[in-house]
Amino acid sequence: MSADSARELYEAAKVASLKHRATYSDFPVGAAIRTADGQVFTGANIEVVSYPEGWCAETSAIAHMVMAGADGIVEVAVYAPKKDLITPCGGCRQRLAEFAHGDPILHLTDGTGIVETTTLSALFPRGFDAEALKDE
To answer: Which of 42, 50, 35, 39 is CA-nearest to residue 20?
Structure first.
């Protein structure tokens, strides 16, 4: 992916973070995902008082992608203005892997831009896959 492509995702994640509902944690997060056909979907974290029942920004972006009939995540950017080098949580790493096309590029950001670019498999080397559920 190009530097312009990465910057576009960063900016989309930053804008998405403004739509957060972080009533309890006061920790806004935005995510942007690009599909294999070039579509970009965004999401923000949405909290409820029972923390585990809220949505992470990546989960919201994936939901928008699925509802639009798209598939195949190839690139991701996550933005959190209160944390440098934000990464997806473990649950979101699994979700991203489930909807991935190959090994997605993952841009780790801070308040000024992309700090590091890596792959999902580098952050999540032994995630579950459908093969684990098949009978031998």
So the answer is: 42
Q: What pLDDT, on the 0 to 100 scale, is given for residue 15?
A: 98
The single-letter code of the amino acid at 116 is E
pTM to 2 decimals? 0.92
Cα distance between residue 83 and residue 51, in whole Å: 19
Per-residue pLDDT at 81: 93
- Scored b (16 or more CB within 10 A) or e, 84-113 reads eebbbeeebbebbbebbeeebbbbbbbeee
Q: Which residues are catalytic, by number?
A: 58
Phi-psi domain of 82 (left: phi exceeds 0; alpha: psi -120 through 50; beta: other): alpha
Beta bridge partners of 100: 73
Q: What is the dihedral of CA 9, 33, 104, 25, to 10 degrees?
A: 90
Q: Closest Cα to residue 43, out of 72, 18, 74?
A: 18
The Cα 127–Cα 32 span in angstroms is: 21
State the DSSP string of 26-47. ----EEEEEETTS-EEEEE-B-
